[in-house]
Write a structure and sequence with these properties.
Length: 262
């Protein structure tokens, strides 16, 4: 009987993966719920073809990201079904993971944190934080996340100006890359609502450390592939994934913090 019940989280996980894929496909392009289109040729999918992961009308296959999201969504659903978060429960915990997944995919692929997703995230963060910590720590956490990341944002703006001058001095065309975007500031406020005060400062710190580790690994990969250039330090990586990784760890694996936080 228990084995049969596992069919429920598998079905929910598959549906959740479809939702994340759909929102990640349409929101960065149209900023609204719309008919999905092929990312290679812009041909519109029929809803039936999109739902069953068929090729686009011109024969392009679905991106590998589609299948990674589907698989991870099922795994996450099964894990939470067996080990539901104490205060959030299975359903709210899984919705939170789906939200993190959508933000993660969109930020990696498009370097965007969209306003509609931020509004939903703020409401979700308020609910999650209130259930986990109470209303006052939740609101203070949101304010703390906003102010801490806002300070880093202004520092990043200064670094962006220095980078722009360096590119111009080397005769390269300027671009619109930013060390930190306004979306990162909003995302930090949302995560602050979820983690509450004072845990948000620790969440941002862990996010910065994770970002630093990945940046070092990125530079090492360039060196190993002999693609390192003197302006490699001027490359900006999306920061949202590191903040999400930190929040995910703290929210879903709180016992692992015991060795780090007295």
């Amino acid at each position: 009987m228990t084995s049969l019940l596992l069919i429920i989280p598998i079905i929910i996980g598959w549906m959740g993966g479809w939702i994340v894929n759909y929102l990640s496909d349409v929101l960065p392009v149209t900023r609204r719920l719309s008919q999905p289109a092929c990312q290679y040729c812009d041909a519109n999918f029929t809803w039936k073809d999109y739902l069953f992961f068929r090729d686009c009308p011109n024969g392009h296959r679905r991106d590998v990201r589609t299948w990674i999201v589907q698989a991870l969504s099922v795994v996450a659903s099964l894990y939470l079904w067996i080990n539901p978060p104490t205060r959030l429960g299975y359903l709210l915990g899984y919705i939170l993971i789906l939200y993190f997944g959508m933000i993660l995919v969109i930020d990696i692929e498009h370097r965007l944190i969209l306003h509609p997703t931020s509004i939903f995230g703020a409401l979700l963060g308020l609910l999650v934080g209130t259930l986990a910590h109470g209303i006052y720590p939740t609101l203070l956490g949101g304010l703390g996340g906003l102010l801490i990341m806002l300070a880093l944002y202004f520092f990043g703006t200064l670094f962006t100006r220095i980078r722009l001058r360096k590119l111009q001095a080397e005769g390269q065309a300027p671009d619109d890359e930013e060390a930190l975007g306004q979306g990162d500031v909003i995302l930090s406020a949302i995560i602050g609502l979820m983690l509450g005060w004072p845990l948000i400062w620790f969440g941002i710190l862990i996010g910065v450390l994770i970002g630093g580790i990945f940046s070092i690994l990125f530079l090492l990969a360039l060196l190993l592939m002999r693609k390192y250039q003197k302006n490699a330090l001027m490359i900006f990586l999306p920061y949202g994934p590191y903040l999400i990784a930190s929040a995910f760890w703290i929210l879903f694996f709180p016992k692992s913090l015991a060795a780090l936080v007295p």
